[in-house]
Amino acid sequence: MYSLKVPDAGTKPSAGPALVTVEIDGTLIAVPEGTSVMRAATEAGVRIPKLCATEMLEAFGSCRLCLVEIDGRKGYPASCTTLVAPGMKVKTQTPKLAELRRGVMELYISDHPLDCLTCSANGNCELQEMAGVVGLRQVRYGYEGLNHLKAKKDSSNPYFTLDPAKCIVCSRCVRACEEVQGTFALTIDGRGFASLVATGTNDFMSSECVSCGACVQACPTATLVEKTIEDKGQPDHVVNTICAYCGVGCGFRAEMKGSEVVRMVPEKDSKSNEGHSCVKGRFAWGYATHPDRVKTPLIRKSIHDPWQPVSWEVAMAHAASEVKRIQAAYGRGAVGGITSSRCTNEETWLVQKLIRAGFGNNNVDTCARVCHSPTGYGLKVTLGESAGTQDFISVEDADVIIVIGANPTEGHPVFGSRLKKRLREGAQLIVVDPRATDLVRSPHIEAKYHLQLRPGTNVAVANALAHVIVTEGLADDAFARARCEVGDYENWRTFVSEARNSPEATESITGVPAAAIRGAARLYATAKNGAIYYGLGVTEHSQGSTMVMAIANLAMATGNVGRPGVGVNPLRGQNNVQGSCDMGSFPHELPGYRHVSDPAVRAAFETNWAVNLDPEPGLRLPNMLDAALDGSFKAIYIQGEDPAQSDPDLHHVHAALSAMECVIVQDLFLNETAKFAHVFFPGSSFLEKDGTFTNAERRIGRVRKVMPPLAGKADWEVTVAFAKALGYEMDYAHPSDIMDEIAGLMPTFTGVSYEKLERLGSIQWPCNDAAPEGTPIMHIERFVRGKGKFALTEYVATDERSTDRFPLLLTTGRVLSQYNVGAQTRRTHNSQWHPEDVLEIHPHDAEQRGIKHGDLVVVASRKGDTRLHADVTERVAPGVVYTTFHHPESGANLVTTDYSDWATNCPEYKVTAVQVRLARAAERAESAAAAAGK
Amino acid sequence: MNTDKLVRMANQIGAFFATEPDHAVAVESVTSHIRRMWEPRMRAGLLAHVAETGGAGLSPLVLEAVTANRERLASLTPRNPT
Amino acid sequence: MNTRIYVPADAAARSVGADVVAEAIVAEASRRGVAIELVRNGSRGMLWLETLVEVVTGAGRVAYGPVAPEDVASLFDAGFLTGGAHPLGHGVTEQLPWLAKQDRLVFARVGVIDPLSVADWQAHGGGRGLRKALGMAPAEIVAAITKSGLRGRGGAGFPTGIKWQTVLDTPGEQKFVVANADEGDSGTFSDRMLMEGDPLSFLEGMLICGLGVGADHGYIYLRSEYPDAERVLTAAIANARAAGLLGPNVLGSGKAFDVTLRRGAGAYVCGEETALLESLEGKRGEVRFRPPLPAVAGLFGKPTALNNVVTFGSVPAILADGPEAYAARGVGRSKGTLPFQLAGNLKQGGLVELPFGVSLSELVNEYGGGTASGRPLRAVQVGGPLGAFLPNDALVLPLDYEAFAAKGAIVGHGGIVVFDDTVNMAGMARYAMEFCAIESCGKCTPCRIGSTRGVEVIDRVRAGEDREKDTALLRELCDTMTHASLCALGGMTAWPVLSALDHFPEDFGSPGAAAEGN
Fold first, then answer.
1. What is the ipTM of this complex?
2. How far apart are CA C183 and CA C181, in angstroms?
3. In chain A, which residues have their Cβ closer than 8 Å to the Cβ of B33?
4. pTM score, whole prediction
């Protein structure tokens, strides 16, 4: 359950505009209409006993502890389900109410184990607290009657247990699963006295449960409790911080005992998640203290030598001398570095500063290169800012939602739950995806249109949607002409109106029936509020940037920009990918997306940093790898990224890394890239440092240190020391000093400070004099670039084509329980849900190849091959196969190509022509042996 | 740098701007994109390829842009005075 | 012309062999080469006479009953096809005092017509109310219902007109009509008899409601234990559609109304209207808190007119003959008629429709004919398993919502169950708690745990270990359940328990058992 120390007003706040004044125990209080009596009482400082009520859930009215007396009303209404009315007079404490509450509590306790002292919830149990509050002194029914004390405990979930003996049947867990998470995995089984919380199946692990933890958090007793609480006891203090997994950036309470985390609980006041979480942030943090963590710096001469543990000083001196040696021998441009979207803004800032100021070039890149670089480019060109337009809560005002190439219930689960909630409220959904994701159809959710396109044909679909909008007169001309460059708009109208962009003409390219395109276009264009959400299925294509622009075009043409419920919303992959981009991780841009060639911008940095900056764009990561094979790039500093697993065409990546003379890796673990490294700086997890992350809604939030760095240095301190060893002094006492420097140099950050973050909780940039408390929704009056720009988005087929030899198209994605290359999640119990990556293949394609469910198959592309077990499923269309890349041994990226986005070189992960065949006996034996040896 | 890759990348850029109805704008857009996004040795590689082969494999638009803007693509931005 | 013979297909009649009797009559007629026309009608409500066979003669319909298959040959021998005398003969049905004295509005056609024949129904006045309603504005329809004084017949007695007015006044593009056919109270069967005996009039009531409140669709939530009613309703709905009564263009009016029949899953609590709605939506049958009222946010959150079967059955007559005629019947604020159901230890169980105001004694002693056992009557329970047990001296009470409420009792759905002096009232109190324990939905704590503890405490009282203490605890528990339960199931379970304790303390093992409180 949530901490008892955190106040809970019992019911949700009401947004009712009018105020209603009521009298509660003699105190007058004005609250918004629609507020419950219980919440009004809380606001008046009056506590009404409750068990089934919590402000996280809709009122339910089952526990009957919160009864009150109201003048002029019969009986004893429940204060949680009774709304305030003008002039209402409420009494919360009368002898009769005391008697009734005691009577109810006596019934509760007559079916509850009396093991408070040894119960894991001891000291943090609402039932225990309420028994005290109502003054229960005896249970006259005795304990010999019918009871549930021998009910069987379910420990199947690796992270929490269900002990029905302690269940008080308040349904909070069931309601949390339905209302907050939207999974409907829990129910109350049986009726009357036999009622008990249960999964629909034998136990949690065999159920639909996604282990988000909402039920555990909602439970007022120890019925559902974290195993860490069972093992370690109740926490003694709390530190607020942010999850380090996906770009939703959930706020969490790290509940601590000394410097040991007891549990992570989502923060109710955090605007990104409003008290919800997923299995990763909530439970999969054990990697932070996993034995695989490296705690001392390591060096070696050759990548074939064993690692030598050394002191920080020795490691720094060695790394610095290598960089200097290489620059002396091969030129200043022979070195570069990669910032991490897993690290804080401050750390990213320092790494790019180190490269620009210390290395003296712009060879800095980040893992956004391989995920959302087209978002940065495409939105900058069309709207003027390299970021999403909305805040997450905006979805609650959306009436029609298009999800393109994103799988939020797996990849951005907490936002996915918010989205599903809005869909259950009646918003309509259009899914554009080659695969039938859960959003297409799951409990209480069904997409109105699923445009199941062939991988690689996004732009053709977007153009066809635009064609319908323009030719059927559905565009918001007034908006487009007033807010956008009119000439470009006219060009665009002419372009999309051409017959070749009609749904009928594109049907043979995309495989999407024209009628579905027309229906979807009409639905979106005529919506009161239409919102587009997209993910890597948009960006990771040779036309990734084109598609981002095509999306922006659709939003501008229909007037769906600049207010709640609309917008262009990239779902960013990593916790700080927005932040790492903002902080100047691109080789052609200084922080704040300003081109390096701009002398005025450079001058500001040069003054502050006391160096002269290179005005030429640097190498992007794929260019660095190419240059390495070319012999002109020799050393790289990689902070918190694993290109040797995550980047495409791994044979090429491995060859390039092997060609370098000094690879410096900074990470929590000896990852795949470390196999090619000469220096290893042990990294620090998000629990070990202070800083900020910026999530997908541009929300800057504080990451707070809860334990000392395992290796003695936080990542930012490592970069400072490395810079110093290189002879470039950096002087910061605390990450807040770095933020002050950022605020001084970035126009969108001038108003940001740790002090303000402390005060406001979080801030959405731009935050400056024009918007001192930040900017939830952008482009309201005008676009950041002034007038919005319509780009012409010609569909150009990728060079990666299916042929007779490679007849299937492989596309990739992720699953809920694992994260990216799995470095963290594979070191937690999450692997119980996804122990290996599998290949999804349509029954038709499987049958043609004699493949049965579970068979080991070989997936081969022009670039390489790998082996996976087959999952024969209709989630994929015929001709399409799908896998994930969470396990290094799966080698998905051995197969992917080096084709990339035209504007940003973002790799085309989502389309690879492959052939799939049944593995031969020898291959099966080899794989089995490898698995056994693992 | 791998010339085949540079040619492919340049052609991809050309393909995007080819739809631009104003040809002069298209040529300028291709040039500007390469000038602003490519590191000098990549630009040099492309120019060398054009010099050596007359632009084998390059689309007409890209070839036109590179040929017409050789100096601009080869040049380096002046540094700020220290 | 073939002689027409009526043999009820009502479930109560079938349970005593009506089907076999019907087969026997057909076989015997065939054997004798006599041409007959057999009609399976509803029951006339004289259950002690079932199987009641009626023959159409020149003098009217002549009744014979209770007929067993072995009586059939002798009936033919006695010339029953022309109304011949027979020991089982009762003369002209309509003239039987038990029927003649009744004032049948809701049950006017039950037992009279072929339930599935639209023509027969119309020939007997069916559809008159609907035709009138089709010519009225929605507000006029609702006003007529308000004026009639009709109150919900499901048990709560809430004014139907006010409920419909709320639905009418609540804005919403989609509204619904829902019929509560989850008749689960012990000793009640009027919903069933109406659905089996005159389903078209019930549908007519729903139709009129739809016209009145602005709903184009109705749902019937039928308890699963009524397979006969399900069969009859299914056929009746199909026939009504074929006759243009239901569908997109009701009787050519341009107005749409259709009905969907849904079967429950055997939970008593789903007769509670909000639990019914949950169940109808496909969810666990759990009670919702109120407000919002179903009239404002009911089925799928839409404004919903939810009424009992007999309530809908009462509507056609109000429209057909005017609200004044209806309101002229009854007493005080209890207007119109109620189909009472006589059950338990009675000589003559059955259905008696009378205006409100008739005394319990008249129903039990005159219509019911006293106990079946011939032993002295000890207690009467009115209004189902949650109704109070009334002692002999309460028989003077008139059947009137307010008069009953004043005595801590309920009229409810009009079910009357009679017990003779062999009953143990402590056992009945225990049964009331046990019933609540079995049927509790489990949502609210007082009902979910309280009912089980109630059974245990009554057992302890009866065992007599510390009777005084346990009786005090039982009374306190009853108080908690009454005031703290979410719905009437937990909230009213105390009524039978406390009335048994108050009126029959001796059955709890000690005269002192009732000494506490009142």
1. 0.97
2. 5
3. 903
4. 0.93
